[in-house]
Amino acid sequence: MLRFGTLAGGPLPGTGQRPYVGGMLNYERRCAEIINQTSLLVSSLDGADLSIQVPSIPDWTLNQLVRHVGHAHRWADLMIREKVREIPYDRNGAQQLASYVGEKASDVVPWLLEGASSLAEALSEVDPDEMIAVIGGHPGPRVWSWRMAHETVIHRWDVVNTLGVPFELDPEVTRDTLAEWTALALPYAFMRWPAETAPLLGPGRTVHLHATDVDAELVIDLTGSRPVVRKGHEKAAVALRGPVVELVLAVYRRRPVDGLEVFGDSELLDLFLDRVRF
């Protein structure tokens, strides 16, 4: 899960830029998607062996991944219900997973559903613009509804991919997932790993993400001191084209770009996807 340690409460260090909190879905829809995506996730767990390794996150078993998602929900729930101003990172159990072994789906499914429902309820009971659990100067309810909805989307893919179950995602939700990645994960990577991402910046360095099945085109401009994202169709140093869900999986490093259309500087694209990690 993306951790916003140095994003909380201020701009990205060295950029003066605050993460944009936009996207395709409204606040109420994102709250609903926390429950919906969790329900879809658990529907694939019936009879599953939770001890198997997750290929996309090889350090975790399915057991640990499910607990990770549930603890992330509960951490966000705690912050919203207690209306904390500062984010309590020491109360986040989403990375402390070693003890979760030998559980069955029947042990974890009710717990996971309960946490998702509680978080959605907590978010619905506060003003979306209330300055609690603040991230990057933005109201926590808006950002955490966005982050937790798509945290669940991506980890649902991890689950179904592990089990060999088909993955389907509403196009509007997928567009919102892509927007969330560009608004939060992308600037986070440049802040968190400045030495690794620095080679991406330079004259003429632009990346175009072009969905072929929905209206979603983004240009990531790397020509300055920080990435800048624009909507629309522009000629870029490299373009990646394909169905929007495949673009999402590519930028989240869940799939290679093989099978998608790549035009232009493929080496820049490979470097970009390697360095901008979640």
TrEMBL record:
SUPFAM superfamilies attached to this UniProt entry = DinB/YfiT-like putative metalloenzymes (SSF109854)
Pfam hit, one: MDMPI_N
Q: Which InterPro entries match?
A: DinB/YfiT-like, Maleyloyr_isom, MDMPI_C-term_domain, MDMPI_metal-binding
Domain Mycothiol-dependent maleylpyruvate isomerase metal-binding: residue ranges: 32-159
Q: Which UniProt keywords apply?
A: Isomerase
MDMPI C-terminal domain sequence ranges: 176-270
**One Gene Ontology term of the molecular function aspect:** isomerase activity
- Residue runs in coiled coils: none
PANTHER family named in the record: CONSERVED PROTEIN (PTHR40758)
Q: What's the protein here called?
A: Maleylpyruvate isomerase family mycothiol-dependent enzyme
Native species of this protein? Lentzea indica
